[in-house]
Amino acid sequence: MADTKIYFLDGGTLLLDGFHIWWNQGPGGGVRIPSYSVLIEHDEGRFLIDTGFDYDHTMKYLAFEQPTQTPEQTIPGALKLLGLEPKDVGVVFNTHFHFDHCGGNKYFPHAKKICHKDEIPQACNPEVFEHLGYSDLSFSVEAAEARGRADELTHGQTAANTTFETIEGDVELAKGVHLFFTPGHTVGNYAVMIERAKDRPMMLVLDTAYTKRSLDTLCQASFHLDPAQGVRSMMRIRDLAEKHDAELFFSHDIEAFKGYKTGPDFYS
Ligand SMILES: [Zn+2]
């Protein structure tokens, strides 16, 4: 049995106001945040957790977030750094469908795709304040058609190749790869814990808490469906991390991200 290897695929950066990152706390002012996806090389196959943002989409709908993304930070570019192509990935799991987590799904028509059962219905019919979060609909013919945006399906998407297998509650995606249901940020949001052969388990907090400070102070981002539920999910992640003695990794924490391994460098 080979050891599981975990690669962080650097997907570039976005700019948010501090009051959006730390809701009702701030301080305000522009803060550049990282965006990344996670590739898991596992005995059971290659699993991709989220697919980052699409630069052109972001410039069209969220230009105020001033995206930066080099060719190596696109999903095909980041995989190429590992000597891989999108076709080498067997399973794509989306923790939720905000635009910075599903922008590269269009490169994986062949892959098995998995998400929470309520995420696609929510992307089809979001709350009024969720429209920009669920702005990139290229991951799903169903969602793009529901929102009148089928003209943006430019990568040969079909109903068949954008069909998802849906899950609910906690699920073991592969042996030692645990999906923890942590709603609040979105209706079907997940965090992911990966067991490692040579180290403590890795807890990918993902958007359950954007930064270390967010989790330490139970301060979520302003982009949420249900803030009370979001705080309970953060408390759950803290409990799980303590119970499993897991090492925490944050989705949008630029200071923490500077210390993370990216590109061909991996965790195991
Ligand atoms: Zn995000």
Describe this structure in words.
This protein is α/β, with parallel strands linked by helices and 268 residues long. It has a single domain, classed as Ribonuclease Z/Hydroxyacylglutathione hydrolase-like (Metallo-beta-lactamase, Chain A), CATH 3.60.15. Helices cover 23% and strands 24% of the residues. The strands form 2 sheets. The chain has a 6-stranded mixed beta sheet. A 5-stranded mixed beta sheet has the order 7-8-9-10-11, with helices on one face. The radius of gyration is 17 Å and the shape is globular. The mean pLDDT is 97. Bound molecules: zinc ion (ZN). Residues 98, 100-101, 207, 251-252 line the site of zinc ion.
Overall structural domain count: 1
CATH topology: Metallo-beta-lactamase, Chain A
**Beta-strand residue fraction:** 15-25%
Largest sheet: 6 strands, mixed
In brief:
With 268 residues, the chain is of the alpha/beta class. Helix content is 23%, strand content 24%.
List the topology elements:
Blueprint: E1 5-17, H1 18-21, E2 30-42, E3 45-49, H2 55-61, H3 75-80, E4 91-93, H4 99-102, E5 112-116, H5 119-124, H6 141-146, E6 165-167, E7 171-174, E8 177-181, E9 190-194, E10 202-206, H7 212-217, H8 227-244, E11 247-250, H9 254-258
Parallel strand pairs: 3-4, 4-5, 5-6, 10-11
Antiparallel strand pairs: 1-2, 2-3, 7-8, 8-9, 9-10
Bound molecules: zinc ion (ZN).
